[in-house]
């Protein structure tokens, strides 16, 4: 039994301008202790799909799925009380914007101790000691003094570390980390990633890491899913993805890295992700794909098999990354 | 090389921190003894840990705040607060957050004209509009974007608008405070290419603040590495990245993740903790985390020494990073 097993997840928002599909047919599985990285352009539904799993979307969202299970239990059938026991304890999330999830009116110390009060039996003194220990773990200098600080008195990076300390306070089984280190300096990022990987080694914690840093992906993840415009367009073990991407979006993403640059000007992907009103009928990447053909514009591709990285593409990239396979040779399943 | 446009000497910025009613306020040194020069057509990157003073430096250079000590000269003139108004045209800033920095209730055209209204009060509305449309085209946006509101744009497009606004007064220097870190990789490369184009066409000098060393390595001519408010290593980016002399620089480069799975690379792990900027450290500020620290390091702070290529360390590193 997988720790997390989500099949065919779709999220639609009711907006003033009509329904908007932010997540379309996404599968997510995570085993105990596994590290999955989720990458993709902003707006590709990475955060929304994870918030859907956590049950944290506003009422304007309609979530459907064929299966939505955590430790074999259907997340949709939990009572509010059962849900509160799981969310924030067994399943915790680090949010993208620390300032929007920390309360400006309370000290960070109060907020972390409050989280400990809700989810543990620790007494007042033990909660304080645990809070200091957590601040030390995430590399916050002068923890005793910082516990008394308000969020606005600290830098963005420092607030992000407070968020991380709060999320790991109760030793979760699954940690969903939404861009947890994006605002941080690399030495602290390295410490935080080591810390998360260490929690996973010691407690068997599974980690779903949303990031746009391909370096972090390469050095942290075991498996990578690539999202684009609400869909998962490719999924591979980390080595395979970097060595041989199948989906043209993955290929272009890797080519745009300064590290791989061969000239001062970098290769780019022209245009932007489609929005609510210009979602293409066929492949969602077709307007920006240099391999797009008529079949791409006409028909939305289904995922290929695992040997092809489950790429949602009619004509995946060939081994050299430049050409594409011929459509007639492709078997879509 | 042409004359520098901005010269900073020993810039310092202190803040008073209140610590409750009973204790006296503490002094926080956000920036100490920072010196550099910015020249046309060149990019100086500033890198370093969160809270090391990068944004403080940006605020001093853009004359949002005065330094507590030290001197800033712009085109040869001392940038004292009484001259700020006149000198601000020359130095403009682009912030990290393309969402927060644009007024959501104003159309792009109005946003772009704003600096002209304030700094060129005698300019006619028609001239202002012509200039705003020119800059819009310069950053790769289309004429129809002129009448739209910021929320109708993607992050990358909003950053183009911020850059266009910064260019309205024809500055010679752009301070770029993490200009691409909020953007997607594919959009980051579009904006970096735009910045390269603008620099080539307009001869702009860039002060480029970033924590992404792989971007800095690709983009910058020179680099200044800061630690706890001080420059600890400066020099041509190529040389600094190839063979860092300060242990902190080496640790930074080593900690930067590479897009290469299973490279088997050994990362330098920093132990000890980042001192609080409120603490006054007698010796080398990096000593509590440095693997080369000895009694000399803990007793006396090493000065930044060297011409062009400088570093502040008693026992500098030799050789390349892995
Ligand atoms: N107005 C202020 N009052 C008190 N302290 C301040 C003020 N502005 C900055 N500081 C402190 O000065 C130091 C330098 O801050 P600064 O914002 O320049 O850091 P930074 O290098 O830009 O960090 P980041 O990478 O997180 O953006 C920090 O310790 C910060 O908390
Ligand atoms: N509450 C909401 N109402 C309507 N649309 C939303 C809401 N939250 C997110 N969206 C939209 O859903 C899409 C996916 O968002 P998100 O999951 O945050 O992307 P990312 O991959 O960057 O995390 C975006 O187009 C976003 O604008
Ligand atoms: S289906 Fe066609 S347009 Fe879509 S990614 Fe594949 S080649 Fe490109
Ligand atoms: S002076 Fe000493 S402690 Fe400081 S960086 Fe150099 S070796 Fe390390
Ligand atoms: Mg997100
Ligand atoms: Mg800053």
Give a description of the structure:
The complex is a heterodimer of chains A (333) and B (322). The longest helix of chain A is centred in the middle third of the chain and has 18 residues, at 186-203. Chain A is of the alpha/beta class. Helix content of chain A is 32%, strand content 20%. In chain A, the strands form two sheets. Chain A has a six-stranded mixed beta sheet with strand order 7-8-9-3-10-11, with helices on both faces. Chain A has a domain at 248-270 and 278-327. Chain A is globular, with a radius of gyration of 21 Å. Chain B is 30% helix and 21% strand. Chain B has two domains: 6-90 and 171-189 and 197-311, Rossmann fold, CATH 3.40.50.300; 104-170, no CATH class. Chain B contains ten helices and eleven strands. Chain B is globular. With 322 residues, chain B is an alpha/beta fold. In chain B, a hairpin with an 8-residue loop joins strand 1 (6-17) and strand 2 (26-38). The model of chain B has no long low-confidence stretch (mean pLDDT 91). Chain B has a seven-stranded mixed beta sheet, sandwiched between helices. At the A-B interface, helix 7, helix 8, helix 9, helix 10 and helix 11 of A face helix 5, helix 6, helix 7 and helix 9 of B. Bound molecules: adenosine-5'-triphosphate (ATP), adenosine-5'-diphosphate (ADP), iron/sulfur cluster (2 copies) and magnesium ion (2 copies).
Give a quick summary of the entry:
Chain A has 333 residues and is an alpha/beta fold.
- CATH level-four homologous superfamily name of the largest domain in chain B: P-loop containing nucleotide triphosphate hydrolases
Beta-strand proportion of chain A: 15-25%
Helix content of chain B: 25-40%
Helices and strands of chain B: which structural class? alpha/beta
Measured as a percent range, the helix fraction of chain A is 25-40%
Largest sheet of chain A: 6 strands, mixed
Rg of chain B, rounded, reads 21 Å
Portion of residues in beta strands of chain B equals 15-25%
Strands side by side in the biggest sheet of chain A? 7-8-9-3-10-11
CA gyration radius of chain A, whole angstroms: 21 Å
């Amino acid at each position: 039994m997988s720790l997390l097993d989500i099949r065919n997840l779709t999220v639609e928002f009711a907006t003033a301008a009509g329904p908007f599909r932010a997540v379309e047919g996404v599968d997510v599985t995570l085993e105990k202790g596994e590290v999955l990285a989720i990458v993709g352009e902003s707006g590709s539904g990475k955060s929304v799909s994870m918030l859907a799993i956590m049950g944290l979307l506003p009422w304007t969202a309609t979530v459907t799925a064929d299966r939505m299970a955590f430790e074999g239990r259907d997340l949709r059938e939990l009572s509010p009380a059962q849900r509160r026991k799981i969310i924030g304890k067994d399943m915790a999330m680090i949010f993208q914007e620390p300032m929007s999830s920390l309360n400006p009116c309370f000290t960070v110390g109060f907020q972390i101790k409050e989280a400990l009060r809700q989810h543990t039996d620790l007494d007042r003194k033990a909660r304080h000691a645990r809070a200091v220990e957590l601040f030390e773990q995430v590399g916050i200098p002068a923890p005793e003094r910082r516990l008394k600080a308000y969020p606005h008195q600290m830098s963005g990076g420092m607030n992000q570390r407070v968020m991380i300390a709060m999320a790991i306070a109760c030793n979760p089984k699954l940690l969903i980390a939404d861009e947890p280190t994006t605002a941080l300096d690399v030495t602290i990022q390295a410490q935080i990633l080591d810390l998360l990987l260490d929690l996973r080694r010691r407690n068997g914690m599974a980690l779903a890491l949303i990031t746009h840093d391909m370096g972090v992906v390469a050095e942290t993840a075991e498996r990578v899913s690539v999202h684009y415009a609400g869909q998962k367009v490719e999924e591979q073990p980390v080595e395979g993805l970097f060595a041989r991407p199948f989906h043209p979006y993955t290929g272009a993403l890797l080519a745009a890295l300064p590290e791989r640059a061969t000239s001062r000007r970098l290769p780019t992907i022209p245009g932007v992700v489609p929005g609510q009103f210009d979602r293409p009928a066929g492949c969602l990447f077709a307007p920006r794909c240099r391999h797009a053909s008529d079949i791409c514009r006409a028909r939305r591709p289904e995922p290929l098999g695992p040997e092809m990285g489950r790429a949602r593409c009619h004509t995946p990239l060939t081994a050299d990354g430049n050409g594409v396979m011929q459509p007639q040779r492709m078997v879509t399943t | 090389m042409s004359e520098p446009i901005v010269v900073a000497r020993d810039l310092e910025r202190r803040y008073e921190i209140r610590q409750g009613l009973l204790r006296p306020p503490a002094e926080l040194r956000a920036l100490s003894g920072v010196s550099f020069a910015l020249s046309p057509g060149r990019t100086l990157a500033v890198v370093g840990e969160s809270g090391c003073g990068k944004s403080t430096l940006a605020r001093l250079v853009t004359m949002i705040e005065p330094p507590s000590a030290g001197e800033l000269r712009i085109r040869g003139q001392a940038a004292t607060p009484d001259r700020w108004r006149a000198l601000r045209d020359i130095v403009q800033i682009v912030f990290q957050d393309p969402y927060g920095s644009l007024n959501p209730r104003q159309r792009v055209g109005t946003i772009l004209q704003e600096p002209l209204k304030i700094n060129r009060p005698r300019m006619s509305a028609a001239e202002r509009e012509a200039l705003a449309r020119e800059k819009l085209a310069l950053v790769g946006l289309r004429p129809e974007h002129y009448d739209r509101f910021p929320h109708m744009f993607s992050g990358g497009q909003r950053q183009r608008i911020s850059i266009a606004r910064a260019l309205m007064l024809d500055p010679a220097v752009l301070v770029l405070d993490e200009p691409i870190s909020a953007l997607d990789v594919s959009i980051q490369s579009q904006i970096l290419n735009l910045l390269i184009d603008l620099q080539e066409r307009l001869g702009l000098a860039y002060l480029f603040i970033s924590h992404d060393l792989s971007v800095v390595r690709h983009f910058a001519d020179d680099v200044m590495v800061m630690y706890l408010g001080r420059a600890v290593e400066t020099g041509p980016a190529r040389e600094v990245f190839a063979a860092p002399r300060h242990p902190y620089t080496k640790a930074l480069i080593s900690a930067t993740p590479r897009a290469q799975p299973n490279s088997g690379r050994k990362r330098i792990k920093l132990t000890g903790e980042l001192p609080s900027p409120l603490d006054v450290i007698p010796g080398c500020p990096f000593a509590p985390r440095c693997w080369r620290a000895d009694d000399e390091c803990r007793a006396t702070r090493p000065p930044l020494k060297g011409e062009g290529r400088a570093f502040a360390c008693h026992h500098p590193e030799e050789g390349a990073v892995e």
